Amino acid sequence: MTNTAPSTADAHSAPGAGDFAARAHQIAKVYGSGDAQVIALDSVTVGIPRGRFTAIMGPSGSGKSTLMHCMAGLDSVDSGQVFIGDTDLTRLRDKQLTRLRRDKIGFIFQAFNLVPTLTALENITLPMDIAGRKPDQQWLDAVIDTVGLRPRLKHRPSELSGGQQQRVACARALASRPEIIFADEPTGNLDSRSGAEVLGFLRDSVRKMGQTIVMVTHDPNAAAYADQVLFLTDGQIVDTMADPTAERVLERMKGFDQPGVKA
């Protein structure tokens, strides 16, 4: 039985979905068939609150990355609905979906995905340049200062540390003022100090700039930076935790190592 928190359980029924930057209603995703069939998502209903930092955790194969990819419009669902704001992604054609991802969603991945021949500033503004849009200079300046990159804007990725490169990627995701940012293991390639800097920046972007962030992670220390944690196992959300600490998250994750334990 799926167990969702009160803040997320009724996401699909909220009029206008005003409190949610993204939401999913009864989404399912299955890979393969027959003996090779894998149920990655099993009728998941969840809402991502605006202006909050949400972490998604679960054991390997729990469906956490699939959930993020489906909610971000990077993968399709087999059934159910996915919304960004009031827009139903499942009703969009490919070109409409591409435009929505470009204009409404920011992405941060474990691999920094920076263009090596461009400067840090050019990498930050690249999505807007491709779209033919000029950045809001006041907002762009605020993002650059928040991420602490102003002295490095003319440097190319090869001239930046791993932590600085990931901060460029974070700034790029924020620069267009997206509806929501999805981060997939954003500190996976970083040392602990650089990882803490990036996580601190993400948390500050939520608290100081009103951003909404969803982060998939396997690290309890990373999850502790979030406002809430959603726990998945066997393709279902089985628990939520508000105001997480690394110790509480680690203790909860240990329960998934016990056969038959979900909640």
Characteristic key phrases:
single chain, 263 residues, alpha/beta, Rossmann fold, 6-stranded mixed β-sheet, 9 helices, 35% helix, globular, disordered N terminus, disordered C terminus
Q: How would you explain this protein's 3D organization?
A:
- There is one protein chain.
- The chain is globular and about 50 Å long.
- Helix 5 runs antiparallel to helix 6.
- The chain has one domain: P-loop containing nucleotide triphosphate hydrolases (Rossmann fold, 3-Layer(aba) Sandwich), CATH 3.40.50.
- The termini are close together.
- It is α/β, with parallel strands linked by helices.
- 35% of the residues lie in helices and 24% in strands.
- A 6-stranded mixed beta sheet has the order 6-7-8-3-9-10, sandwiched between helices. Strands 2-1-4-5 form a 4-stranded antiparallel beta sheet.
- The protein is built from 9 helices and 10 strands.
- This is ABC transporter ATP-binding protein.
